[in-house]
Amino acid sequence: MNHTKKPSFFARLTGRTDEYEDDFSSGGERAVFVGEGGERHAHISTRNEEWQASEADSELAVDVYQTPDAVVVKALVAGVQPTSIDISLTREMLTISGAREDEREVEEDNYFQRELHWGTFSRTILLPEEVDVDMAEATEKHGVLMIRLPKINKKRQTKLKVRSR
């Protein structure tokens, strides 16, 4: 198994190798403060298991478009069982989350290239218009999830009859 050390946040951000990496190897990040008296270094332990788990979620790629009567959201969910997809909807916001299971058929060391995402994914979309949550539909065909969200007709009028008690 390949045990290469993951570069620190600052190394990924700046492309620099971290000369103080061994001093702070407990999983946190190194912060550099520059001011009077030169550089000062501090160890910041901000990563907990919950934060790392949420970082592992990949963001689901989506297309969002409209028809005259609906907002439509499409997402590629190839390799995901429809029962593993969770869709939460309000009138203004849509959240799609789920998990793509990896059936490890190949040892990690035998990969030359590995670009497919396995594991959890999540995406929250602020909708461009209010939608009717009761009439929303979600279908999956050939690995494409399609969510049709009917727009609320804000110009629709109805007459109310006054009843006496």
TrEMBL record:
It comes from the Bacteria. Residues 53-165 form the SHSP domain. Belongs to the small heat shock protein (HSP20) family. This is SHSP domain-containing protein. It comes from Candidatus Kaiserbacteria bacterium GWA2_50_9.
